[in-house]
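Hi team, as promised in this morning's meeting, here are the two structures we talked about. I've kept the exact order from the run log so nobody has to guess. The first one is mostly here for context; it's the second one we should focus on when we meet again. Sequence first, then the predicted structure tokens.
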Amino acid sequence: MSTVDTQLLTVVARAQRELRIPSLTAAVLARGTVAAVAAVGSVDGRRGGEPVGPDTQYRIGSISKTFTAALVMRLRDDGLLSVDDPLERHVPGTPIGAVTLGQLLSHTSGLRAETDAPWWERTAGLPFAELVPQLQQVVPAGSRLHYSNLGFAVLAEVVARHRGVGWDESVRTELLEPLGLTRTTPRPSGTHAQGVARHPHADLLLAEPEHHHGAMAAAGQLWSTVGDLAVWGEFLRSGHPGVLAPETLAEMRRPRGVHDLPGAAWLGAHGLGLELGNVDGRRRVGHGGSMPGFLAVLRVDVESGRGLAVMANTTSGLSPALVAQLWEVVEQQPAERVEPWYAEGDAGLLDVTGTWYWGPAPYRLDALPDGGLDLAPAGLGRAARFVPAGPDRWIGTSGYFDGEELVVVRDAGRPAHLDLASFRFTRTPYDPSADVPGGVDGWR
């Protein structure tokens, strides 16, 4: 057993006992694989019950929202909608027709968090038509983050009207089958943990109900295993051919609604259907999940591909401290193999590289192996990366110049200056031979 396996089992075993969790399964993830796994307890939380293991299904709750978001973005990439479209364009006749699909995905629609009574997570689901009168805004759209389970029922209806099938079927055919997620299902299948609540003052368990939640299924219906979550976490990081492109996942990972705590830097945010973490300058992507009888966490470091999947069959009991402790084990993985460097650059970009000046401020422009460019200031300034968009044209993909066009203007075939947004970059500070807006009076 490796050091990581031993550490993981120690943390999981202690947490399962000290927090009185009927069963607890955690896995260290590495680029779509399970690098280490520990499972403690039984499927029903009782002595003598069937032990849980890596292939035991748990309900993953709101991690299901990431699947719903992927379906919406597939529609977008198919040209059937835009995330800036108002809901009315796709589901007419609701009280929130002006809300955009992007606002629903990022929990910035202002839509109420939950349905009317009864408690939807503990009862059989309703059809979408019966939810429509409940679509009420409680804060102005776009004003701030306000988490809404109800919003994902709306998004599932968007998917159903375009695809002509229900949410379950779209998830199966468009996501589960292409990615090989054979142990992810809308209802429990095979070996699965039983959802229970633990009495806070006694070692007693209460069975929690399990239903299909109809229109609300898109907010928390799915069951899965740590192995399937490993594959799904890597998909959220890097995409998959035929499902969603890496560029689409990168768009989904951009923060749109931020958990804003006064006096503190943001640590969490929502992109398009994804939860984002900002820990010591590193981004993590995934989601948490809770349903009666179950808790789950999926987190993947976007840069390294290392991650964590945690699943428990208890209504309450996991804590941020435990997740942080488990992440410390993630960081104990052996160093990844460093791929060797090879000279694979494009000599055709060489005359564009080097030092350029924005006014008197020097910037370095480097060519990237994929034909892109990296712009970096020598001191304070606006760094950005760019991807090719045509001869002598690039489009920004990050920073201040995200989405802006960089154009190389040539004179007698040689780069004379760069136009970036309205700024002009020259080879020397305020180059008098370049057409600098406002003119150059000369240094003195």
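And here is the second protein, the one for discussion:
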Amino acid sequence: MQAKRFLLTLMVSAALLGPALASPGHGSGEGHDDRAYGEPGNPKKPARIVQITMSDADGKMRFIPDRIAIKKGEQVKFVLRNGGEMDHEIVLATLDENLKHGEEMAKNPDMEHDDPNAKRLAPSKTGEIVWKFTKAGEFDFSCLIPGHRESGMTGTIVVK
């Protein structure tokens, strides 16, 4: 009887937590190999360096640059710097995924990212994301901290 109760509890927990664990930008990174916008890069392999600054100067939140052109199959090392006065993050995804994830962040503003396509930085801090763009298309990068994307903190990656 105790084993059945444990199994039932496990099944209910999996059903309730499953969607949260599967959301883009969170979790262990498992099951994300088929992402439309590519895959985690290999930091031991060569990569083109693209510097992105996060800014909130003059009341305007933005990424500099906010449009990046990349070749299909190219591995990029994003060198990130938060030049603002508040925490910011960057999440690489499709526009639809980032919009949906932004809704989740609005409900849970203290949500932390633990995925190779996302990085949160405190003011004056730096970080890196290494990403390989395996498919052509237009993809999004946004700060999904509530209010930041809406204030202009978004950009586009064009992969050809």
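Starting points for discussion:
DSSP finds two helices and ten strands in the chain.
Strands lie at 39-40, 48-55, 62-64, 67-70, 75-82, 88-93, 118-121, 126-132, 137-142, 154-159.
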